[in-house]
Specification:
Shape: globular
Order of helices and strands: HEEHEHEEHEHHHEHEHEEEEEH
Oligomer: single chain
Strand content: 15-25%
Largest sheet: 7 strands, mixed
Strand order of the largest sheet: 7-13-12-11-8-9-10
Structural class: alpha+beta
Distance between the termini: 35 Å
């Protein structure tokens, strides 16, 4: 039945071979029923094009839709469905795709569209959000609503507001530590000599994160701990005395022979002098994200920044993996 519905609606596509609103909606409803029946996951992506002064369905926008549809369709899988859901938004339905799979898809689509949109006059950018069945909604409409709310949240993120995707990893780190933030989601603070907080506060934060990881061993996630001396991280002892974890843990710093075989963690040895004065923790799960960044100053003091903005954390992880030629994974 699903195949027949798809074939019948195949002719009703938007310019550039994107499916129309009716087909995308019907497919989304059927995919929700299928996922519920087989206890499977699937995800929906929403895409806005910032900088458009007209609806994507306007006749004047037909050439633009054709231009962006090619990289979109090349970046998705044959089983994925792409189409318009309203006057200004494109949706992508990703069967058999969990939260982290949807983030990987967002990375691929963002990269695929970057060249096309950068050279538009005026320049435009694609902003994508996601929602995953069943955690974010048990029906197509609920998933679209969740993804729409996340689109709003993402546009308020530091990652989008400060155009961090156009900057280098260490440039972003410098901006975050060199700017004063006061808020619930993003906050700056100082620690070390003469400050209310000592350097031990960093270890306490990392211990809390490791405790969170070990309390929920089946929760998928990814965590990076970068330190001047990895063997001094309190997390190492804890990681070596617990069972298998679903969270991928990476230790980033200078090479130490004692750290070449650590249970539940993968060392990443980097001879980068910037890691001697700036260290960070990045932790992302499907429920939340956390970043702690500290830069050493004169007099054994540190300028620090921490954030619970998952879009910023995801962006920093992506930048770090890409710029150090690491495997892009989540």
């Amino acid at each position: 039945m699903l195949t027949e519905t798809k074939a019948a609606a195949a002719k009703k596509t938007a310019p550039g071979k994107l499916y129309d609103t009716f087909f995308v909606s019907e497919y989304g409803k059927l995919e929700s029923l299928r996922a519920a029946r087989y206890n499977a996951q699937f995800s929906i992506l929403l895409m806005n094009v910032d900088g458009m002064d007209k609806a994507l369905r306007d006749d004047d926008a037909a050439d633009f839709i054709k231009k962006i549809s090619a990289p979109i369709l090349e970046a998705v899988r044959p089983c994925d469905v792409v189409g318009m859901i309203d006057e200004r938004q494109v949706a992508v339905i990703l069967p058999e795709t969990d939260y982290f799979g949807s983030l990987i898809a967002i990375r691929k689509l963002t990269k695929a569209l970057a060249a096309t949109l950068t050279y538009e006059t005026p320049p435009k950018k694609a902003v994508l959000s996601q929602a995953t069945f069943p955690k974010d909604g048990r029906g197509y409409g609920a998933l679209i609503s969740t993804a729409a709310q996340r689109m709003t949240d993402k546009k308020e993120s530091l990652w989008e507001k400060h155009e961090f995707k156009n900057k280098l990893f260490w440039e972003i780190m410098g901006d975050l530590c060199g700017t004063s933030y006061k808020g619930f989601e993003n906050t700056s603070f100082d620690l070390g000599g003469g400050q209310a907080l000592t350097e031990a506060f960093i270890d306490q934060i990392n211990e809390l994160i490791i405790k969170e990881i070990t309390m929920f061993p089946h929760r998928r996630g990814i965590a990076y701990f970068a330190s001047k001396k990895l063997s001094a991280l309190p997390a190492i002892t804890t990681l070596g005395h617990i069972g298998t974890l679903s969270t991928k843990v990476f230790l980033v710093g200078q090479a130490e022979d004692s750290l070449r075989d650590i249970k539940n963690a993968t060392p990443i040895f980097l001879e980068d002098p910037r890691l001697r004065e700036t260290f960070f923790t990045l932790y992302l799960t499907e429920d939340f994200g956390y970043a702690l960044i500290c830069r050493e100053n004169w007099g054994s003091t540190f300028s620090c920044f921490h954030s619970s903005d998952p879009y910023l954390v995801d962006g920093l992880i992506n930048k770090f993996q890409t710029e150090y030629s690491l495997q892009e994974q989540l």
